[in-house]
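Technical note accompanying the year-one report. For the benefit of new consortium partners, we illustrate the data format agreed upon in the data management plan: each record pairs a sequence with a structure-token string. No post-processing was applied to the example shown here.
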Amino acid sequence: MALDNKLIHALGDELFNALQQRTTVAPITTRHTEISIEDAYRISLRFLSRREALGEMVVGKKIGVTSKAVQDMLNVHQPDFGFLTDRMQVPNGANVSLLEHRLIQPRAEGEIAFILAEDLVGPGISAEDVMDATAAVTPCFEIVDSRITDWKIRIEDTVADNASCGVFLLGEERIDPRTLDLAAVELTMLKNGQPAGSGLGSAVQGHPCAAVAWLANTLGKLGIPFQRNEIILSGALAPLVPVVAGDHLEMQISSLGTASLRFTA
């Protein structure tokens, strides 16, 4: 039985307040064991509406927990999904303040971002449709951050928490995806000059376009389209990397380019 609207709003407000105050909350799934994915999505929409009321604007969508490495790390064994807003985006090479960006327990992931040339409305979207609708791809750092205490999440927790999204940045390059094999590109990441992870494009559901198609179809069933010029994050190519103030991250994806950022208090 679906959670009632009063509880949906209360849980969305709880997550919004946790973001604003840089605090965490107990897992929703331990307090409301009957919660469904659909309930979690409704909570996430309430959470988003509170951010939009402060002037934030949706600029894209994200899929997460797509690779086996990340699923094993979080013990969540299906993808999640959420929204990107303009205030989540930071410039390439930025100094990211944990306080200013309200980050609590951040982890970094490297992935491929898609910039759309046209709308995609699921269900029924294929990987080929994604390729045809994409203007460009580029390296992306997403800094995920859970408002759930100690990352003790199940799939419903992370969907409700806007797929644990914190901030993201795009590299400078804009590459036509039809000019390369996205499944074969390789990510290498450095943390403070030391190797911090690597992975192939195929880590995300066999091909990044397949991951984006899944997200288009999943959100399409919920009445949410992909829109022209939106940014779509396709999922981490390697395990998540915990970060603290003072850390400097660099990433290169073969044939795509580079991205970097530094964390401050």
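Partners are asked to follow this layout when depositing records. The domain at 58-264 is CATH 3.90.850.10 (Fumarylacetoacetate hydrolase; domain 2).
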